[in-house]
Amino acid sequence: MFLQNLVNGIFVGAMYGLTASGLSLIFGVLNIVNFAHGEFIMIGMYITYFAGALLGVNPILSVLISVPVMLILGVLVERFLINRIINSSDMAQIFLTVGLGLVLSNLALIFIGGNYYSVRVGYATESLKLGSLLIGKASFLTFIVTVITFIVVSMMLKYTFIGKAIRATSQDRTTAQLMGVNTGFIYTVAFGLGMVLVAISAALLTIMFPVYPNIGNHFVVICFVIVVLGGLGSLPGALVGGVIVGVIEILCGYYFSMGWKDVVPFLVLIICLLVRPQGIFGTRT
Amino acid sequence: MLKCDSVSVVFGGLTAVNKVSFNVDENEILGMIGPNGAGKTTLFNAICGDAKSATGKVSFEDRDITPLTTDSRCRLGIGRTFQIPQLFETLTVKENIMIGALCRVPNISSASEIAEKIMELLEIKDLGAHYPAVLTIGQRKRLELSRALATQPKLLLLDEIMGGLHYNEVEETVALLKRIREQGITIFMIEHVISAVVSLCDRVTVMNRGGFIAQGTPSEVMENNEVINAYLGRAEDA
Amino acid sequence: MRDKKVCIIILAYTVLMIAISLVGNNFLLDMVVLTGLWAFAAQAWNIAGGYSGQFSLGHCAFFGIGAYTSSILYCNTGLSPWVGMLIGGVIAAIVAAVYSGICNKLKGHFFALATLALGQIMYIASVQLTSITKGSVGINIPFKPGFLNMIFNSRATYAYIILTFVLLLTLFTYFIQKSKYGYFLYAIRDNERAAISLGVRGLQLKMGSFAVSAFFTAIAGTFYAQYILFIDPDSLLVLFLAVQMAIIAIIGGTGSYLGPLLGSVILIPLSMLLRAKINFVSGLDNLIYGLILMAVVLFLPDGLLPFILKIFKNRTGKKAMEKYPKGELNLDAKV
Fold this sequence. Notes:
The complex is a heterotrimer of chains A (285), B (238) and C (335).
Chain A: H1 2-30, H2 37-55, H3 63-80, H4 90-111, E1 127-130, E2 133-136, H5 137-159, H6 161-171, H7 173-178, H8 183-208, H9 215-230, H10 235-255, H11 263-275
Antiparallel strand pairs in A: 1-2
Helix pairs in contact in A: 1-5, 1-8, 1-9, 1-10, 2-3, 2-4, 2-8, 2-9, 3-8, 5-6, 5-8, 6-8, 9-10, 9-11
Chain B: E1 2-11, E2 14-24, E3 29-33, H1 40-48, E4 54-60, E5 63-64, H2 70-76, E6 78-80, H3 93-101, H4 108-121, H5 137-150, E7 155-159, H6 167-182, E8 186-190, H7 194-200, E9 203-208, E10 211-216, H8 218-223, H9 225-232
Parallel strand pairs in B: 3-8, 3-9, 6-7, 7-8
Antiparallel strand pairs in B: 1-2, 1-4, 4-5, 9-10
Chain C: H1 4-22, H2 26-51, H3 59-77, H4 81-102, H5 108-128, H6 130-133, E1 139-140, H7 155-178, H8 180-190, H9 192-197, H10 202-228, E2 230-231, H11 233-236, H12 239-252, H13 259-277, H14 284-299, H15 304-316
Antiparallel strand pairs in C: 1-2
């Protein structure tokens, strides 16, 4: 049973990690905590849902629609809003994104309504048997997509010129600027890339969770925990942080108490902030 | 007056200050020179209690102050300025100085009087109602010094107070520091402007790679070969 | 009274109290009570978030501690909520002081996240500790009007009480702002390291201001419980509540005793009117909240108060602003 829980934890955690990776990238590069992250996830989930309900598109394939839409949304938000407070106080940054989140979730409430919508896929309830382990087909599928996404984006950050520029900006804004990096452009790229990650993770989340205007609140706090735990701007950190949170959550829920398991991520967050604020993979102090 | 006993500061694997021991005597002006990254500012932080990982013993007026926090060391009489002025940007120049004075006097009106006096002494009286954002580098450094003076220190730690100043401003500051010393305040200063060091300091100490490599009168130090190799190279400037 | 501003504040209070005695409309009274409540809570938040720069997103925890402490004591032992309110305040203050001490080294975003975690932990605790809090079912406070029970038949009585609370807290904040502690808090907010190097007791002042802020927030919680007569985790301990306190203070203008009052007077009636008059579109009030918040952060980063004072100054040609600027939070200042 322990093994089963561990595997479940890893699967859930990897998905959390992917959900947090966009936030992590934005936090790391722009040094902004995006409190509207949950609402972006919500938008991504709605796109996937409506792509399925209206056009009959499979959730995984819906990323073909949601990725470009979210990319454009991200670029617009960065250009017209985030860009203007990049050098402002933390308070201004937090509350611009809080305000944006309020606007987005209430727009959804006004125009789509408060109903819960779920995507039904045939394989959602089916499982694979691996020895004594039971693995849900849906979670297996999301796990594969998550891992592929992580590998592709990490490669991109590591080897392409723009990826290097993003990492340079993340490590030291001023020096990157002095080295000829157009940081304003990099901010936009990083924000857009963050939104692409949000779109992919939202598509996967839609398979397992219903979508409604406030669904973002459900994920955003977990994402903060993962980002702090894994280190700002670190994609491997987000994945490992996500897996840690997922495993701890499932194990605590099983051995301790279902209700109290939700406390664990917050305790992890507080302890991590106090002991190692730069995160497991972070380098900045 | 101030006694450091094998003080070290280690960041991660880097030893910024390595077992430094020295004294600052009553009412002297002690200068400290050395190349960038030698550990001078870190040593200041250790004296002020602002370096978390500092080890060794710091005593002030025969009292062990090692366990004390930065603010209580200030109240004992150790004032400091920062290399890059750390001003309160939403307070006026006068209010900036009053913050320093309020650590000695209990009410606003006497703090305001002290601030007035210090502004007069440092010739920044007409700037009192301005915000730091409009000040020049020289004025910002002057404000740093005023604030530290307002805490009525016995020992003043000055971190490159003349860096980036105009030639005239350096001369003014030298005259000012002489006047401050006449009031009985001991000064320990990091300074790269060698002419100022020579004309002000009774003793100079040279720091390199976390340790002291030479001490003595300014002229002795300037002639020391090790010092010339490590740092000066252009001793003729002095 | 020698102080002109104190006179104006007390005069405004007196006029409001008289006005309330003439109002019979329940909706209007409800509006006054809630505006007062949120002005009080935002004023309390401002002591930590605005003055000492401890930017909290976990104040719902203290609001909840206040509401739960007095209600549990009242429902189980019959203890007067007036006493329970003080007990709740002290508990909240102790929790806040300890937490602020632990998080002393955290700045900006990270402090906000740490306090956010505190609020969420309190939420889960209040859901899970069913034997004490009745979990998500919530606690119904039996309606037994009486002064000792802090339950009243007339909404006007609640309005009198909350306005008096607001008056006292505003005067308290005003005198703090004028005292040396006000200077110290501004110094810590602007540059903590420099403040400490000038002998300011940074840690103690931060812990103290956070505790005072939490104490008053808890009192707001008790008042809320006694007004609504029902509490549950979802109405007290949600992130939105903590965010709302901050929003009101920010829109009005942080770091000044008038900002939270202004923010509340603008936002609460507006959102109540929207909810009452355009009730066929749910979410419109919060949408407008969000839009106003974004507009203020982008265009008036110091809040509406300095903006309004400036207009006032230009109109009258008086130097109304002269004393004010100390309270402005310079959001554009780059360190």
